[in-house]
Design goal:
Layout lengths: L2 H25 L7 H26 L8 E3 L5 E13 L5 E10 L6 E2 L1 H6 L8 H13 L2 H12 L5 H27 L5 H5 L2 H4 L3 E12 L2 E12 L3 E5 L2 E4 L3 E5 L3 H15 L8 E5 L3 H10 L4 E4 L1 H16 L4 H15 L3 H10 L5 H17 L5 H6 L7 H15 L8 H15 L9 H7 L2
Parallel strand pairs: 5-10, 10-11
Antiparallel strand pairs: 1-2, 2-3, 3-4, 5-6, 6-9, 7-8
Helix pairs in contact: 1-2, 4-5, 4-6, 5-6, 6-9, 6-17, 9-10, 11-12, 11-14, 12-13, 13-14, 16-17
Length: 450
């Protein structure tokens, strides 16, 4: 029986199921099936049709054998050895029997499976469409939960371990891509020229924000440094104290400050920021390392200490001076915050110098706030910035860290390997940036990783 007639037989089986359901609905007036029963019956029949159709169509590909030799990536040629079979689970829950020609290259010692490459099959024994769904769910939810969702929605049984393997493998490729992009951007003559040739982007204003979120690993808590870049026009007001951020670009990793700086530079340039940062504002919490990275990669970007972090520092000192939660602490902190907002930095510093700390901890808090404001006072022009409509708070990155890092990486009982966490974070960045389709395709993944 040829393939078209097999498909026709599968379709006839589906039509028969639909007819039987229709008859039950018409005849059993007192106990007709509800819509859920009808839906599930139709879905199960469609799954059977899909399984039969996929089995027939995969056979149409043949074995992929084309002569006794095949070109190898090393430049030599592989020699045909045998026909190898494998089983692959498809989107409809069927197990496909795939027979493939196997070639072996003596020069590099690698096997060649042309049909696997043509079909886009990776090592997880999943068809590409099913693998894409599994990977997406593995990025959004814990691996075991993702496996249950696949079974519940598609009727396909798959283990959490298979979800993990697929998700982390593509995440590893994303890490490689990000690293290569960072190296290209920061190399002499990297992206500067191409970015300078984008006058439209240079005329627009951007924000770059950076912060960190802690990830529980087997080696203890590790900081994931995360940044976001977006156009000021993409920060849309939706109501009082409510905004919508569209077309943002997240970047970051569990990495050194130097490595994060390279990723930041590559990401913001790709998003449209000028090579020297002249068309962007950088908002951060005041940590010296971020200003050092800005000086190295975006020297002309304007610097601002996030208002909420600055206010938090004031309240920390107030609690140390007057006791946490006391009316005196609140009154002192609100007064200093008001002065800082109005850019009366000298008044804040004068209040600190006249304070009378009663403990070593209180004295240390006063000294730290004095240092913080003295070091960053030129980055604390809050009233002036708001007067011209510029942001003073880093809410977008605070929310981004919660979404990108904490919602997936800090669930109860979770502990990651550092390597595994980095792979998931690389995919989470793409998912949060709405650049999911830019991740490496399954076919290229199969070619690049064993």
């Amino acid at each position: 029986m040829d393939a078209p007639s097999r498909l026709q037989q599968s379709v006839q089986q589906f039509l028969q199921v639909v007819e039987d359901l229709g008859r039950r609905i018409r005849e059993e007036s007192g106990s007709r099936p509800d819509l859920r029963t009808v839906e599930l019956g139709v879905r199960e029949s469609l799954r059977q049709v899909g399984q039969a159709a996929m089995s027939d169509l995969v056979e149409e590909y043949g074995t992929g054998r084309s002569g006794n030799r095949q070109p190898c990536a090393c430049g030599s040629q592989g020699r045909f050895k045998a026909i190898h079979a494998r089983q692959v689970t498809d989107l409809y829950g069927g197990v496909l029997q795939v027979r493939r020609a196997y070639y072996f290259c003596k020069t590099c010692g690698q096997g060649i499976l042309p049909l696997d490459q043509e079909l886009g099959l990776g090592p997880e024994e999943l068809t590409p469409a099913l693998a894409d769904i599994v990977e997406l769910l593995g990025v959004i939810a814990p691996f075991e939960s993702a496996a249950r969702v696949v079974e519940k929605t598609l009727g396909v049984q798959i283990s959490g371990e298979r979800v993990r393997r697929r998700t982390e493998r593509i995440g590893a490729l994303c890490l490689v891509e990000d690293e290569l992009a960072a190296q290209r951007a920061c190399a002499p003559g990297g992206l500067e020229t191409s970015v300078a040739e984008r006058p439209a982007a240079a005329d627009q204003h951007f924000y770059v924000m950076a912060d960190g979120g802690m990830v529980p690993t087997h080696e203890g808590y590790r900081e994931a440094k995360v940044g976001v870049c977006f156009k000021s026009s993409d920060h849309i007001e939706k109501g009082e104290e409510r905004h919508l951020l569209v077309h943002k670009r997240f970047f970051g990793d569990i990495d050194t400050a130097e490595g994060f700086g390279m990723r930041m530079y590559a990401a913001v340039q790709d998003h449209g920021v000028a090579a020297d940062g002249k068309n962007c504002d950088l908002l951060a919490d005041g940590a010296p390392w971020i200003w050092n990275l800005k000086a190295e990669h975006l020297p002309r970007a304007r610097e601002t200490v996030d208002w909420y972090h600055a206010k938090e520092h004031i309240f920390t000192a107030a609690h140390a001076l007057y006791g946490e939660g006391t009316p005196a602490a609140t009154a002192w902190a609100e007064a200093r915050a008001g002065e800082l907002w109005r850019e009366r930095h000298g008044s804040v510093l004068a209040a600190l110098h006249s304070a009378r700390p009663r403990s070593p901890a209180a004295k240390a808090a006063v000294v730290e706030l004095d240092r913080y404001i003295t070091t960053n006072r030129r980055r604390m022009r809050y009233c002036s910035r708001r007067a011209v409509g510029l942001l003073v708070g880093s809410g977008p990155i605070e929310g981004g860290i919660s979404y990108v890092v904490q919602n997936r990486m800090k669930r109860t009982g979770m502990h990651w390997s550092v390597c595994g966490a980095r792979k998931i974070l690389a995919l989470r960045m793409r998912w949060a940036s709405a650049t999911w389709e830019s991740r490496p395709a399954a076919a290229s993944a199969a070619a690049q990783l064993p």
